[in-house]
Amino acid sequence: MTTTVEERWDQLHRWGPYGLLALATAIGAAAAHFFMTRPEMYVAGGLVVATLALQVWWGAPEPDHTARMQMYFAVRTVLAGTLTWLNPLFSIFAVVGYFDAGRLLPARRARLGLLATAVTMAGAQSGGLPPVTPLHWALFGALLMLNVCLALVFAHLGDKEAERTAERAATIAELERANARLEQALAENAGLHAQLLVQAREAGVADERRRLAAEIHDTIAQGLTGIIAQLQVVTAAPDPRLARVHLERATALARHSLGEARRSVQNLGPAALEHDTLPDALHKTVADWSERTGVTARFTVTGTEEPLHEEVAATLLRIAEEALANTARHAHASRAGVTLSYMGDEVTLDVRDDGRGFGPAALPPRSGTGGFGLDGMRARAARIAGTVSVESEPGGGTAVSARVPLVPHD
After folding, report:
1. pTM for the full model?
2. Which percentage of the chain shows pLDDT scores above 90?
3. In 267-409, which ranges are E strands?
4. What is the rounded distance in angstroms from the CA atom of residue 48 to the CA atom of residue 98?
């Protein structure tokens, strides 16, 4: 596993004092006869044992309370200073005070700890404590200033390290809070997703019901209405040949309605679009409607013809069939016109008649009993982001206009 920088510093703070104490003891013992008398050697040996015991006590698995840390640093500094007083070479161990004063002591007391370490180090570097000559004192003062500067540098580095530690702790805490909020949001999103799936399923069922209702209205209902109209002519026609013509039309309408019913159930497009483009299908639809109703009708195409997506073409054809059916039932018109216009990024379908019309405050009559009429046309157009508008006035005819996006054929 990779060791982080923090883990390495922790190891240095834990095991570094042992290593420095062992190194200082070994070198100090080798040069003991230069600095200490025999009684001082015994005292130094006892202090080394006490320092080792202090390090063992400090390394025990106990909570690092502030009072415990301050007591450990203070006792260690006194022991290190006393050892350095007896033998300057023990400053090798005393230098550890520079590294952990900021870690073990509060901000204000950390500077006092660094100053105490600086005094110990300056005394050792100047030849031992206490100074005995003016030159010795001058050297001690200069070295003390140098060590104080070093102490200030270590204090600044300690403050920066403390700031970084606090920032890391704050960042970790914020990340933990963010993770908790994220987990809560994910749980809420899971619930919302399940709810949306249920709503989407319900909406899909409702939309499919509306589609089937519209298909039945636009195909079977209109076909049955046409069949009834043709059979009524058959029963009232005195001429057998004329009756036979209308009977054949009723039979053709019945076959056509049967095919449309099957396609509606199978969610297929109108039969008129199986082999023809939308303009061709509209031309045939207008011609058949004119022949069946006796109303003069004309179909016109404007703009550059483009192949349309099946859903767009089917929607416009159904709207045209519904508008013509309304004209046949309610308008009492003598003429009608259907115009298909390709206009850049949209297609428009206009169905006009010169019938009796209706006032602006009146709703357009629904086509047939329980039919959809204008509502059905608008619903069909809305499914492909289109619109349907109606303009009419009493005695001035009616114009139905559908505008849908021009979605090209896949």
Report:
1. 0.42
2. 22
3. 296-302, 335-343, 346-353, 387-392, 398-405
4. 20
Rounded percentage of the chain residues whose pLDDT exceeds 70: 79
- Of 267, 306, 285, nearest to 407 by C-alpha is 306
Please, are residues 21 and 94 in contact by the beta-carbon 8 Å criterion?
Answer: no
In degrees and rounded to multiples of 5, residue 298 shows phi and psi of -135, 140
For residue 49, the model assigns a pLDDT of 93
Q: Give the number of other CB atoms < 10 A from CB of residue 406.
A: 16
DSSP letter string over 180-224? HHHHHHHHHHHHHHHHHHHHHHHHHHHHHHHHHHHHHIIIIIHHH
| Residue 31 DSSP symbol | T
List all residues 6 or more positions away from 229 whose beta carbon is below 8 Å from its beta carbon. none
- Tokens 């589609």 correspond to 211
CB 74, CB 5: distance < 8 Å: no
What DSSP character marks residue 369? T
User: Is the CB of residue 200 less than 8 Å from the CB of residue 209?
Assistant: no
For 383, the 3-state DSSP assignment is: coil
For residues 300 and 261, which has the higher predicted lDDT (pLDDT)? 300
Q: Is 36 in a helix, a strand, or coil?
A: coil
Q: What are the pLDDT digits (tens) for 211-243?
A: 666 666 656 666 667 677 767 766 766 777 767
Q: And the tokens for 72? A: 């450990």
Identify the burial level of 266 via C-beta atoms within 10 angstroms of its C-beta, where 0-12 means exposed, 13-18 middle and 19 or more buried.
Answer: exposed
Residue 347 — φ and ψ, nearest 5°? -125, 135
d(CA 157, CA 102): 9
pLDDT bracket for residue 368 (50, 70, 90): very low
Task: Indicate if the alpha-carbon torsion angle 353, 356, 362, 364 is positive or negative.
Answer: negative
Which candidate, 391, 294, 403, 399, places its Cα nearest to that of 351?
399
**What domains sit in the chain, N to C, each tagged with a CATH number?**
5-130 (no CATH), 277-410 (3.30.565.10)
Single-letter amino acid, residue 113: G
Q: Which own/partner pairs from 388-394 qualify as long-range (CB within 8 Å, at least 24 positions apart)? A: 388/319, 390/364, 392/357, 392/358, 392/359, 392/360, 392/364, 393/357, 393/358, 393/359, 393/360, 394/356, 394/357, 394/358, 394/359
| pLDDT at residue 251 greater than cutoff 80 | no
